[in-house]
Amino acid sequence: MNIENQHQPGGGYGGQAVKFFLDEGEQLHILHPAQVIAYRGATANRVDKLMNIKGMYRKRKLVRADFTGPCELAASLPPGISLKAISLSGGSDLLYDFRHLFFYTDHITMESRILSIKNMMITRDAVKMKFSGEGEIGILTQGQVLELELHPVEPLYVEAGCVVAYPESARMELAVYGNHLASQHMRYQWKITGQGSVLVQATGGSRLQQELESGDGIVKRFLREAIPFGGVIIK
C-alpha cells in the first residue's frame, strides 16, 4: 500500500487530503468512512460494517469501511489535523488512544488495556489499545509527531497532553521539573522511564500565539509570569 499526503501550498485554512493506493489483495480498514471523498475501483471492493472492540471502548459501536485492492481512494482531514502512518513489527508494545486511530491494514490485531485509576484521571479515558502484528496503522494528531527514546533510569519529561503513545512497560508518574518558577507555570508532565520510545505530538502553541498577537507591554507580561496566578489576576 502507498500513501500520499496532499498539503495545500502555503498552509492556508483548508484541510489535508490523503490518497491511498492498494494493490491486488491488499486490505485497508478505515474507521472514519465519512472522510472518504473519492474512490476508484470495483464497487464490491468496499464493504462497510458495524464493529465493536470487545465492548471495551465505552461500549460504542463504530462503522468501519473495509477496502480491498486493487483500488485507490482519497480521504479528507479537518484543518489542524495530520495523519501519521506508523509501521508495526511483531515486537511493538505501544499503547494508543483508540480515538486517534484512522486506519489499519490487514494482519494488525488490537487488544484493550484498562488503565490505572491515576492514569484514567489524567488521560480522561479508561482504555488504551495495543496493536500488534505486521502492517501499518494511521493515527490522527494535531501536529508533527516526534519519536523520543526512553532511558531505564534517566527520566524523560513530556507534557501530559502531548503524548500519543507509550510502551506498555514504561514507568510513568505525574511531575514537574525545574526551579520553583518553572514548575509553577508549566503544565503537568509525564515523568517516563523504561525501554523503547514514546510518540509525542507538537500541539499547543496557543499561548505563544496570543503573546505574539497581544499588544500588552513588557511590564504587564512580566507581572503575569512572576506573580502567582498572575495570568488570572492581571488581564
Automatic annotation (TrEMBL):
Transmembrane segments: none annotated. It comes from the Bacteria. This is AIM24 family protein. It comes from Paenibacillus apis.
